[in-house]
Design brief:
Blueprint lengths: L2 E7 L6 H9 L6 E7 L6 H6 L7 E4 L5 H11 L4 E4 L4 E3 L4 H12 L3 E9 L7 E5 L21 E3 H7 L10 H9 L7 E12 L8 H17 L5 H9 L10
Parallel strand pairs: 1-2, 1-4, 2-3, 6-9
Antiparallel strand pairs: 4-8, 5-9, 6-7, 6-8
Amino acid sequence: MKFSIITAVYNNVNEIGTAINSVLSQTYNDIEYIIIDGGSDDGTIDVISSYGNKIAHFISEPDKGIYHAINKGLSIATGDVIGLLHSDDMFCNPEIIEKIAEIFEICNCDAVYGDLEYVSKTNIFKVIRFWKSAPFDFTKFKKGWMPAHPTLFIKKKVYDQSGRYDTNFKISADYDFILRTLPGGTLKCQYLPMVITRMRSGGTSNKNLKNILRKSYEDWLVLRKNNIGGMMVLIRKNTSKLGQFILKK
């Protein structure tokens, strides 16, 4: 089983190396690593280029945002399973892809997801928020639940059937893709109860009040577009995050 890992990046010279190393250090052998750069001018391209042919595909050109970049990666990915790793994120340990591959083989499922840690931007070992997910139940989507998108690995055939990320959404295209793809109950999704990804805090969706408000508005549009619900679902979705700041022991 071949995995394609896609990283979209723009001007992230200080953190892109950590993301790359976390992919290249994986014990699983059959990984196609794809990096789509938006035309960085801060040294990011030099960092990526230094890895040479360890990166299967590297494209650097202007794009229309992160989801447009991810769609470029999806268009050239050849793996059986596709996962995303943002440029300021990292896999929790070198055995992550190997464990995910085992779940796909054992369960014969369409998607695998797990838990997510939000860590300090300056100290990746300081956890400030813990997203504990749960076994898949598509009825939970109407209660505001969703699997953590940065931990979600999906078979390529699902992308081929469901389409790409809707670039009309600048922040919530991942939520739209999940609601468009998973709630129908036709896909077999398996929860892996362990931390898969560490995400640095201060990402696009929550780096300032303007983006927080925009994300909430886009989430509401996504809910309406996919006929999952409206304002009450959005409220449940947002309030459910409060428990993530009570860290696991």
